[in-house]
Amino acid sequence: MASNNKKRERTGADTSMKNMTTGVLGKIGVAMKSKPESVSSLVRRCQEGDTFAFQELFKRHVDGVHRHLSLLLGPQEDVDDLVQLVFLNVFQSIRKFRGASAFSTWLFRITINVARQEIRVRSRHRRLNTAVKEVNEVRGTSVRRTPESRLSNVEEVYDVLDRLSDKKRETFILYTYEGYSLQEIAELLDSTVSTIGSRLQAARKELLSHLYK
Amino acid sequence: MKPVNKECKRTLTQLTHYRELKAVERSRVDMHLRRCDACQVAWQGLCELEQYPVAAEMLSQERKDSVYDRLVPSIHEIAREFSAPREKRRFKPLYVGGFALAAVGAVLALLLGFYKQPQNHSIAGIAVSPPVPVHKRKVLAGVDLSEGHISKMQGIVYLNGKPFSGMDERLILQPGTTVSAAEDAIINFRMGRFVKISLVDETSWSVNELSSELISLSLERGKLAVDYDGSLGRKMEIHTPESTVRVKGTIFTVEVFGDGVTQVSVTRGQVEVVPNDTTRPAVDVAAGSLLQVPGTGRVVSLGDRQRILAAEVESISNNPGTISGRLVRFDGDQQHVQVEIDDRVVGFTPLTLRVPAGPVSYSLSKPGMQSIEAQLTNEQVSEQVRFTLNPSEDYVPKVANVGVKHRKWKKRQVTLNTEAVKDEESKSFVVRAKAAMSAGDVPYAARLLEETARRVEGEQLTTALSLLAECYTAMGAYEKAADTFDKVASSAPGTAIAQNSKYEVGRLAMDYIGDYDRARAAFTSYVASPVVGQLQEDAYFSLCELYGREGVRKNSLQCFNEFLRMFPDGHRSAYAHLWRGVLHQEVDQQWRLAERDLLSFIAARPRHPRCEEARYRIALGRYNVGDYIGAMKMFQEYQEEHPGGQYSIRVERLKEAIRQMMAKRQRR
Fold first, then answer.
1. Tens digits of per-residue pLDDT, B513-534?
2. Cβ separation of B48 and A20 shorter than 8 Å?
3. In A, which residues are within 8 Å of B55 by CB distance?
4. CATH classification of B326-387, choosing from 3.30.70.60, 2.60.40.1120, 2.60.34.10, 2.40.10.10?
5. Predicted complex ipTM
6. A9, B470, B513, B595: which has the fewest Cβ within 10 Å?
7. Mutation site for A-interface testing, chosen from B1, B16, B39 by largest number of A Cβ within 10 Å
8. CB distance A51–B41 less than 8 Å?
């Protein structure tokens, strides 16, 4: 389990970005080795409607947004559409960003809102699927899984996680799979460390109850 | 399954923070895990879950490009909105150097630009693809016109002639798609971010063309409200049997009546109406105007009905993540109160709508009540406006409303307001109270009736008290209502009114107050009275039911036996059979008698929801007497009649038990 707590590489300035071109010369294609433009400067330009700055922000953060969405929602086909929706929301509300938190935190909150919205939309279908499974189990058409075969694929992992409430699920995923510390999660979810800690424990307890045979 | 053992429960709690446990506690937990298989399995499951190599696949460069390409149209549209003039900055000498540098840079850029090779707007490695027609492009929901996002749907709606459930809140729109709303149905949806449409009440609408240049729609019949932002230069047309409505950015409504007459009303902006009859000229309809085609060709001013219809499209909520503004709910003690936002009628309470950010003035009005005008200043995401309207000082309009048609009531009002009210004050109070009740203003009616009850006596007092008790019931003051009904019963003893009042007291005490003694006294008094009221059967049934609810089941069973002897074909007898069937099973395990009663309930009310329980109980009875074949048949019938019913799991278990028993018998 310790290996899971190891932090994965976070979103940030891509190393390839260090060689990017900036300024007027950069726009017209003249290569100029210099430091990458700071995020705050890009955000400022973005707020003035500069689509080039937005493109730069997109390039820097798209991987992170994609990873967050994939981990929060589990395997699904339309993650690309959701990534697109996140960035559309970012650009639409970038003028409201006042710099009270880091841009990446603000972006993460938008990402998590999009993920929550998606979960809400899909929850009806999930409930239906769960009901069908339960009926099948009662009818004896499906074989009861042994603990060894309980988590044979990633879909089943998310089936178990789907039983948790939104907040517990997010906390559990961020801590366990993304390797964030409680402090970082508290900052990202705009909460306190103690709340996040107890939420994590509650999530584990709930999972244990579900897994109890 | 939940852990039942105390030790298991404690272990499970400790397992949630296993790594933080002290050595002693940890060893205790480990020891328990070795002993208890169930806890061991759960713990292994959690470890497996936490260690599962969940990893997001990497986004390839092609996919990134594809995502960004799809974003480009939206980004440019939004950037255009950003380009609105912003606050001017003061010129400071310090900027001079910056400007000079920028000027040098620009000159250099121009010089280099001459040598630059033509390219496909490639920016930092991501190519911006050339424009593709909107309907062929896979774009975001917010931009794609071919996907309608439903924000409100009431009543029956048909999509291409088939009933449409709107489960996923999406509507796929293509040329040829037809959407119809049945009577009293409403469907509000938006196409992309710039077209909002509302179809109301017996409307048939279809799509002719959806492209980046033109949105062409047809309205065959019914009412349609549109809010269209034409700032992108896309044209929009609505074809009706009599005309074509062309529009560039506005809010308007179109109605096609049964005889083919088209009525176009405009709330904001301007539309051009081109009659299909080429001899007639095209007419421009400005904001606040209405035009009928064919007709005089003259434009008249807009009525409230069209404004309300137009407000439907304005209430269509956009994606919450992308829209500013907040949701406000208007709800108060009075229903159907007209709500105006910024002097525009937006609907009637209870009403939830999205209002723009910042202070918004609203007014609440209802005939006969004092209006409220106030301002919303709260900047929260959502809020609720609770209100209570007070009756206006000259509260008379509803008097005229009693039995008088709408157009005549003004004349009648004058008469009553001057002479009749002065002469017969108390009588007028009752009339006004009745009017207030019919208008839904129950508290005011109650106040009038309380006043009346103090002034009058005899028959008038009985009438006033009866009405007052009804008011209290409607207001939810059940204790007061029961007391008042008691007063009615004592004011006219031995009459049908008194009997009915006793019944009402009983029902209120049983259903709302929970005072079973009082209810029993009231019902018994009713049943024992020599005056036979219309509610004799109901009172008797309620008395039996009351015994059942109190838990005195034997008395209840006896009472139902007596009831069914007295009223074998009464309107309550079916329910009495159901009650008696259940009681036979639970009191004295008379399974056969119970079955007979339950079967007669099913025969009398085959569609009643409690038939499900009756069938299950019949099968259970057969199972208990050892009639397994009969039980299986009834279980089968239950599953056919109520697939997925509330007893399904129990039925399955019992069926399984019967199968096992039959198998055992065969083996023997």
1. 888 889 989 988 888 888 777 7
2. no
3. 177
4. 2.60.40.1120
5. 0.71
6. A9
7. B16
8. no
